């Protein structure tokens, strides 16, 4: 669990990203390095605007990097591909497609025959617990169910890694807790490598094998904390609370720095 | 909720009876006011009493226009409606066939937009009616009026499709990308379906404008009559009760066609899960 | 064996088909040649020339100078002038608002007395035009053509040709009254006027209507009207209506011209009449439009075609009355040049444009076509 294996699933070294908007340049990432072994659940935490989403988008191939190296399963990332699934905070479901059709989107893209497609989508519908809602449209679903579709859709493509950008950010607290348990169940069933961005320290401690705290912008890794608590985790246990306290302290410091930076110009 | 359309209608009526009542009252009040105004003009032997006929005379003219042929034209109102509908339909098809691909193109590619935009912006504010004399001569009396209608429908469709393409949520495109879609697949499976409701809105607006154009288009020249022609013809000879009858027919046809378009739009967006 | 049967069937089929064809051809020859209808479409007069040029129509019927214009531009040739269809048929008329006739302008002046003076000037102007047309070498003819060019904006050649194919006249004689009666009857038959409108207007029948709708008082009073040294209605000008560029209505233009009056005054001024153009844009686009302006109370006396005057008076009770004739004849059926159309009979299966079915042009075309034993049908 030290992230320095010979062949990590995700391998990022000295990643740089600078956004150029007209004459203004925003340095989002600088010297960001991270290696994640297979089947690990990593949570990415950091002050707002530190570049978490940017890391995910570069990994997904939705954004180009400005420098450094980004590899997934040993292959340099250059553009989007079905080997990296992404789950969005806004769900990003296709409103005109039913649950099943949403889940089958990636399969259709690959021209998978209909019968095979159905088999696969059924499997993931069952996995995420959407049985009975196959023919419903997204607008008929609650937020939690929508995100189940989002997860199933990403998983149906059988990617090596699952990139999740605040997937439960817009859910109410109760649904959120439920979805966290569900995600762990799904994860243990699929053993995907997961990179999970969140603002909730509680969520990170509950879910992750490892929590990576980023510095304020330009973001890089500030602290890499292993969470060696057995699952299912008890949020009220003293171990849980102590890990939580540690992460919170790191985060607070960066948050202050970010605030100070915001007040003084670059 | 229920599959019986009659029951559904009954329920709808029950749920909204105040609205329906108000609608009926408003029409009744309108007709009453109209009647009083006509009576006032006729009592005072006004110089333009004939221009405001009694509602009852208009109703009679409306019925007669369907029942009797015009001796010179050999046409009833049914024929006029058929002729106008045919024009609207042809114009509609032409407008769609050109506006949809163009809208998709201009909405997707900046260069296509740069090329098309000046021409579109230049022609758009020109009322379609201004083209009539040219269209009638260049395109003839069959396609001239059709072209006027097509032009009227064209721009709302074009602009709505363009707007639809531009409104495609970036996260949907991102999602499609991460699911392995290439550019053409994203276009076919994301941009196109996303734009469909916008297209329907354009169609609905366009049909309304199409009806506004057809009256003027048919006034200038046409084959086989048309409701617009009927209105112009009856106004010219001063048979105003017939003119109003024609206007009512146009109004109803407009409501009918945009209603059908609205229904299709509603069905489509419900079927597509967009509403 | 089977082959022979097949041959037999084929031979039999050929025999049957060819003999049937022979019978059809032979008997067809004996029968009188079938007559085809003449087709019409409705179209604004200003579009007709272009439609003829583009081959959209084979011909049109329109008032002058639209016929002459197409002819002189070699786009078409005259098939028949309307005078040949219906000699001396009425065309444009002078119409007065009956509300104006009842108006008291004060100081002993009434709308009726001003109308008398107006009609007097109209008579003088018309007579001047008739005289000018009688002598094409006269200076007055030159002036008339010049005024025609001014008024219509058309070339001298077009104006001269148009002047050749129409008659100016003010009298409401027997022929005129018969023409008006005839047109009114045709409008009723054609559905432009529904029969019950006669009763609504308080008329017993068409004759009664024509009798009442033409008021000869002003023509009759002509000799009693004397020139006036002063303008009698400086503050209440007669608001006159006429159709833009319509050469049939040249009389009012002539009556407004000071040269014609023989000096500093126009004919209207000579008789003490102050006139003003009721239209802000130099004339109305159509007769129906002018009748609408009568209804709106914006016109006192106007020149326009007799058809819209009759129709809108009967159909919509517009308060008007005909006080004089303006011209007769002056319409033509113009057909595509060199298309082999030499007679009305050649119009079979051809498409002729008419301004609308409520015009005298339509009535004239219908008459010409029906007189040939042909049917006039809307092109669909
Ligand atoms: N397309 C872009 N163009 C310009 N600047 C951008 C763009 N995308 C992100 N940025 C900037 O880069 C920085 C990092 O953005 P990013 O979205 O990765 O932060 P984040 O950590 O995900 O923030 P949050 O916690 O609010 O989601 C921010 O300052 C942001 O404004
Ligand atoms: Mg983010």
Q: Could you walk me through the main structural features you see in this protein, from its secondary elements to its overall organization?
A:
- The complex is a heterotrimer of chains A (266), B (275) and C (380).
- Chain A has 266 residues and is an alpha/beta fold.
- Chain A is 37% helix and 24% strand.
- In chain A, the strands form 2 sheets. Chain A has a 6-stranded mixed β-sheet, with helices on both faces.
- The two termini of chain A are 37 Å apart.
- Chain B has 2 domains: 1-52; 55-271, MetI-like fold, CATH 1.10.3720.10.
- Chain B has helices at 5-15, 17-43, 55-67, 77-108, 110-123, 132-167, 170-178, 183-220, 227-237, 240-271, and one strand at 221-222.
- Chain C is an alpha/beta fold.
- A 6-stranded mixed β-sheet of chain C has the order 3-13-2-14-1-15.
- In chain C, α3 packs across α8 (156-164).
- Chain C starts with a helix and ends with a strand.
- The mean pLDDT of chain C is 91.
- The interface between B and C is large, with 34 and 48 residues.
- The structure holds adenosine-5'-triphosphate (ATP) and magnesium ion.
- Adenosine-5'-triphosphate is lined by residues 19, 21, 26, 28, 46, 48-54, 217 of chain A.
Quaternary assembly: heterotrimer
Can you write the helix and strand succession of chain A as a string? EEEHEEEHHHHEHEHEEH
Query: Could you tell me which ligands this complex binds, including any ions or cofactors?
Result: adenosine-5'-triphosphate, magnesium ion
Radius of gyration of chain A: 19 Å
* Rg over C-alpha atoms of chain B, rounded to the nearest angstrom: 23 Å
What does the main sheet of chain A amount to?
6 strands, mixed
User: If interface size is counted as residues with C-beta under 8 Å from the partner's C-beta, which chains form the largest one?
Assistant: B-C, 34 and 48 residues
Instruction: Note the run of SSEs of chain B as H and E.
Output: HHHHHHHHEHH
CATH third-tier fold name of the largest domain in chain B: MetI-like fold
How would you name the CATH homologous superfamily of the largest domain in chain B? Answer: MetI-like
């Amino acid at each position: 669990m030290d992230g320095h294996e010979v062949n990590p699933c995700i391998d990022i070294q000295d990643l740089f990203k600078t956004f150029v908007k007209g004459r203004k340049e925003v340095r989002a990432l600088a010297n960001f390095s991270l290696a994640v072994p297979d089947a690990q659940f990593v949570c990415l935490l950091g002050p707002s605007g530190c570049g978490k989403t940017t890391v995910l988008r570069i990994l997904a191939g939705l954004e180009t990097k400005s420098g450094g190296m980004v590899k997934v399963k040993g292959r340099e990332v250059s553009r989007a591909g079905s080997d990296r699934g992404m789950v969005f905070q806004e769900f990003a479901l296709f409103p005109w497609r039913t649950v099943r059709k949403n889940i089958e989107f990636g399969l259709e893209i690959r021209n998978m025959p209909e019968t095979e497609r159905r088999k696969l989508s059924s499997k993931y519908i069952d996995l995420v617990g959407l049985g009975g809602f196959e023919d419903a449209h997204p607008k008929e679903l609650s937020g939690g169910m929508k995100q189940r579709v989002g997860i199933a859709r990403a998983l149906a493509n059988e990617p090596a890694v699952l990139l999740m950008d605040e997937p439960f950010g817009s859910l109410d607290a109760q649904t959120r807790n439920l979805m966290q348990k569900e995600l762990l169940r799904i994860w243990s069933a699929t053993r995907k490598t997961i990179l999970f961005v969140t603002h909730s320290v509680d969520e990170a401690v509950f879910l992750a094998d490892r929590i990576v705290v980023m510095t304020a912008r330009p973001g890089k890794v500030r602290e890499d904390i292993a969470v060696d608590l057995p699952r299912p985790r008890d949020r009220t246990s003293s171990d849980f609370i102590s890990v939580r306290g540690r992460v919170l302290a790191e985060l607070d410091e960066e948050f202050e720095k970010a605030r100070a930076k915001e007040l003084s110009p670059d | 909720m229920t599959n019986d359309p009659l029951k559904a209608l009954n329920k709808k009526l029950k749920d909204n009876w105040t609205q329906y009542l108000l609608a009926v009252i408003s029409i009744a009040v309108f007709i009453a006011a109209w009647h009083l105004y006509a009576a006032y003009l006729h009592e005072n032997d006004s110089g333009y009493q004939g221009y405001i006929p009694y509602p009852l005379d208009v109703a009679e003219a409306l019925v007669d226009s369907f029942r009797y042929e015009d001796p010179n034209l050999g046409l009833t109102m049914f024929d006029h409606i058929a002729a106008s509908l045919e024009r609207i339909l042809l114009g509609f098809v032409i407008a769609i066939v050109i506006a949809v691909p163009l809208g998709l193109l201009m909405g997707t590619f900046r260069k296509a937009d740069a090329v098309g935009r000046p021409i579109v912006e230049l022609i758009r504010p020109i009322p379609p009616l201004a083209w009539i004399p040219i269209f009638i001569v260049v395109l003839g009396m069959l396609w001239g009026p059709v072209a006027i209608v097509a032009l009227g429908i064209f721009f709302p469709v074009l602009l709505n499709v363009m707007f639809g393409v531009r409104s495609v949520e970036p996260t949907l495109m991102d999602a499609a990308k991460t699911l392995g879609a290439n550019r053409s697949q994203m276009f076919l499976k994301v941009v196109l379906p996303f734009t469909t409701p916008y297209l329907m809105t354009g169609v609905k607006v366009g049909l309304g404008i199409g009806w506004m154009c057809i009256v003027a288009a048919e006034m200038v020249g046409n084959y086989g009559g048309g409701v617009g022609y009927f209105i112009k013809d009856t106004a010219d000879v001063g048979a105003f009760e017939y003119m109003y009858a024609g206007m009512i027919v146009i109004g109803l046809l407009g409501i009918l066609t945009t209603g059908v378009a609205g229904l299709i739009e509603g069905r489509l967006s419900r079927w597509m899960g967009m509403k | 064996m089977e082959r022979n049967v097949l041959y037999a069937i084929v031979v039999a089929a050929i025999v049957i088909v060819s003999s049937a064809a022979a019978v059809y051809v032979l008997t067809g020859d004996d029968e009188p040649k079938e007559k085809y209808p003449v087709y019409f479409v409705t179209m604004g007069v200003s579009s007709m020339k272009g439609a003829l040029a583009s081959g959209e129509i084979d011909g049109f019927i329109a008032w002058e100078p639209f016929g002459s214009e197409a002819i002189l531009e070699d786009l078409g040739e005259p098939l028949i002038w309307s005078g040949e269809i219906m000699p001396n048929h009425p065309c444009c008329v002078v119409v007065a608002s009956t509300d104006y006739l009842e108006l008291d302008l004060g100081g002993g002046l009434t709308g009726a007395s001003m109308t008398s003076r107006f009609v007097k000037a109209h008579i003088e102007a018309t007579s001047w035009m008739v005289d000018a047309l009688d002598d094409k070498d006269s200076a007055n003819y030159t002036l008339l053509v010049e005024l025609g060019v001014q008024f219509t904006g058309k070339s001298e050649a077009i104006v001269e040709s148009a002047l050749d194919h129409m008659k100016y006249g003010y009298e409401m004689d027997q022929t005129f009254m018969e023409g008006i009666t005839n047109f009114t009857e045709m409008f009723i038959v054609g559905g432009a006027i529904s029969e019950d409108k006669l009763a609504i207007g308080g008329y017993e029948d068409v004759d009664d209507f024509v009798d009442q709708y033409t008021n000869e008082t002003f023509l009759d009073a002509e000799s009693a009207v004397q020139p006036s040294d002063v303008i009698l209605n400086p503050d209440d000008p007669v608001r006159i209506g006429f159709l833009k560029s319509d050469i049939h209505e040249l009389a009012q233009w002539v009556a407004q011209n000071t040269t014609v009056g023989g000096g500093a005054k126009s004919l209207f001024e000579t008789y003490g009449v102050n006139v003003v153009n009721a239209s802000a844009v130099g004339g109305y686009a159509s007769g129906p439009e002018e009748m609408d302006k009568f209804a709106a109370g914006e016109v006192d006396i106007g020149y326009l075609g007799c058809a819209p005057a009759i129709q809108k008076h009967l159909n919509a009770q517009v308060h008007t009355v005909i006080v004089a004739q303006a011209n007769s004849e002056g319409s033509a059926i113009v057909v595509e040049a060199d298309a082999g159309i030499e007679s009305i009979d050649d119009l079979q299966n051809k498409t002729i444009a008419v301004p609308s079915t409520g015009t005298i042009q339509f009535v004239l075309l219908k008459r010409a076509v029906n007189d040939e034993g042909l049917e006039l049908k809307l092109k669909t």
